[in-house]
Amino acid sequence: MKDEILAHLNDPGHLEKMYRTNKGPFKREFRTIYPELKGNTLADFWNERLNYESDEINWGTGRELFFVIIASLVAGIIAKLPAIFSINEEFFYPRNIGFVVFPLLTVYFAWRNKLSTGKIAFIVGATLAGLIFINFLPDVKKSDTLILSCIHLVLFLWSVLGFAFVGGSKKDEEKRLSFLKYNGDLVVMAALIVIAGAITSGITVGLFSLIGFHIEEFYFQNIGVFGLAAVPIVGTYLTQTNPQLVGKVSPVIAKLFSPLVVVMLVVYLIAIIYSGKNPYNNRDFLLIFNALLIGVMAIIFFSVAETSKTNNSYTQIWVLFLLSVVTILVNGVALSAILFRISEWGFTPNRTAVLGGNVLILINLLLVTAQLFRVVSKKGDITGVRRVIAFYLPIYFVWTIIVTFIFPLIFGFK
């Protein structure tokens, strides 16, 4: 793209078309070549345009606002279905919690990206398949496959959302990384909205209690439910229409927490040796250990996504490399623990799911670490890391399909 920008620098129409087609890559490539183009009137204009940030909040178009309002109401109604139709909450929520928000976010991005009829049909078919399958699984008490299916269904719906976000393009690695960045920005924005909502709710309930009205139960069972269901939708809308709101916060968080997590993991691994507890003979400890592994891996991927959008800090790349190496050690401990448990007590749905997930994560981490090593040894750049992460994401989607839809059949709903 860099050569194409230079070739068409004096063709405003072509540059505009390139920018609207691939905004992220265009911005990144233009910023790398702008120092050589300073003084060129058109280049100076594009530099000002790409770096201009409005101080005002953009509320989008009327159609977008209308969609957000309707989607938020629909999400709240879905969350309230057990109360409306007297459905058993213990049956409904574990199976359908993902349907409260993900399909609506998927619709939002499908509409925004103007997906083709075939891609929309795929999204609708995948969502309906998940909805029908999970709700027709036998209601077996203490079923491991049911729990695994419910958990991985959320990841499956998240993957479908990613498909809508990316637009179904298999070659656009930048959009896949943008999807990871969107998730990080959404977490930050959602946290701010929840904090603001909690403060507002506390003040509201407190003021009404002062005049003798105790509205706690009504408020939290109705307004609170609708508010929580709307948080991801409103947060998504704000991050997409106003990227500057958290655009500078997310990179700071990534740079701040990466070195802290490296130190924490090293200290934690040493503490395990002295604590006497280990994942080999403690099942709950193994589950927490794997949750830690997934969380750290998410930090690595999110940090890489942020690094790719900002100036490549050599120190930051070193931190990510060290974090990847330590995470591989953590993964090795978890993987050896699950192999030990399988050799002692055989295969179960949980052990098989954890084994498969750990193997996939280990391969992904090894690939990412290899590319990061190339960067720190100055034999490559961050593009290789981005490419590996973007390439590997669909593999996790395939794994969610296997665990969600096939595991219950293989293990007889046990």
From TrEMBL:
The keyword DNA-binding does not apply. It comes from the Bacteria. Keywords: Membrane, Transmembrane, Transmembrane helix. The keyword Transmembrane helix applies. The chain crosses the membrane at residues 65-85, 91-111, 120-140, 146-166, 186-213, 219-240, 252-274, 286-305, 317-342, 354-376, 388-411. This is DUF4153 domain-containing protein. It comes from Mucilaginibacter aquariorum.
